[in-house]
Every structure is written in structure tokens, then in C-alpha cells.
Design a protein that fits this description.
With 166 residues, this protein is α+β, with helices and mostly antiparallel strands. The protein is built from 4 helices and 10 strands, in the order αββββαββββαβαβ. β2 and β3 form a beta hairpin. The longest helix is centred in the middle third of the chain and has 15 residues. The protein starts with 11 loop residues before the first helix and ends in a 13-residue tail after the last strand.
């Protein structure tokens, strides 16, 4: 049993509070790929301690089957879908999905067929963009606080049916 297995499935409140940053990038070979960074926003309540935020995010890591950056990238299968302009991300252990507006990114991931999911254990301001996000990615990866998974995009969307942990 991994230490991540000790964290509970995310609640609807945690899922709704998450910040999702999708973008399109290129490998050194010029191939396109579509990362999605999932983070917790900055603390807003007294209950949003560093330990509480980390526990919530480790619950997300578990629900996605993600692994630390220094491990083999897990292929977590059909976990993403695009439906009516919304990206849905299936989370194990709950009937609730993480959702975000798709825009052009939704078309791109449907064509590519895969998404690189990154889950940060530390909060990142919801308004953070560009260099702040880049710094977060580098710092979190170096400190072992960023987890990754490769997910397939399900076509049609109903293929990502929810599955609960026993």
C-alpha cells in the first residue's frame, strides 16, 4: 500500500474548489501535447492549513492514479471527455467529475487523444499565469510535490463512466 492510498476520495466541495490550467505545448520533436495542471487555490479559510491542502490534493492524486515525477508515468486510461464544450475528468472513488470549460483546448485534446495531468500539492493563486505557473511547475517537480498521469480522451464521452473505489 502506498502512502497516497491513505487519503480519502475528494468531496464535491474539494472538486469544485480546484483550479484547472489547460494548455497546448510542443515536445522538442515538434509534436503537440496537452497538459492540464490541477492545483488548490490559495487558502481562504482558517481550515485551509498547509496540511489540510496537502491531504486534499493527495486525495486528488489517488483519485487520478497519478505518480511522482521521478516514477514511471502511469497510463490511467479513459479518464477525460469533452461534452458540450466542457472537459470532464473522471475521479475514482466519487461519482463527481472535475469539470472545466474546454474552448479550443477541448478540440485539441479530442484530436490528440491524450492529456498529461499534473497535480500540485501546494496552493497556487487562481490568477497565476505564465512565469508564475512555470516557476510553480519547476519548484514543485524538484521538491517532489507534483504528481503526473497520462490520460486518454474518451470518445464518445459516456466511456468515462464513474467508478468508485471498493
Amino acid at each position: 500500500m502506498s502512502p497516497v492510498d491513505l487519503y480519502p476520495a475528494p468531496t464535491p466541495g474539494v472538486i469544485a474548489s480546484l483550479c484547472v490550467r489547460p494548455w497546448v505545448d510542443r515536445t522538442l520533436d515538434g509534436d503537440g501535447f496537452a497538459p492540464m495542471l490541477i492545483t488548490h487555490p490559495e487558502p481562504r479559510r482558517d481550515a485551509d492549513t498547509a496540511a489540510a491542502i496537502e491531504a486534499r490534493m493527495l486525495g486528488i492524486v489517488r483519485a487520478l492514479g497519478a505518480a511522482p515525477a521521478d516514477r514511471t508515468l502511469p497510463d490511467v486510461g479513459d479518464r477525460i471527455a469533452v461534452h458540450n464544450g466542457v472537459v470532464l475528468v473522471r475521479l475514482d472513488g466519487t461519482e463527481h467529475a472535475l469539470t472545466t470549460r474546454a474552448g479550443h483546448w477541448g478540440q485539441v485534446i479530442t484530436e490528440i487523444g491524450h492529456v498529461l495531468i499534473a497535480v500540485g500539492l501546494d496552493p497556487l493563486p487562481a490568477a497565476a499565469v505564465g512565469p508564475a505557473v512555470d516557476e510553480y511547475l519547476v519548484t514543485s517537480t524538484k521538491s517532489g510535490r507534483l504528481y503526473f498521469a497520462a490520460a486518454s480522451v474518451a470518445v464518445p464521452a459516456r466511456r468515462i463512466h464513474t467508478r468508485a473505489h471498493p
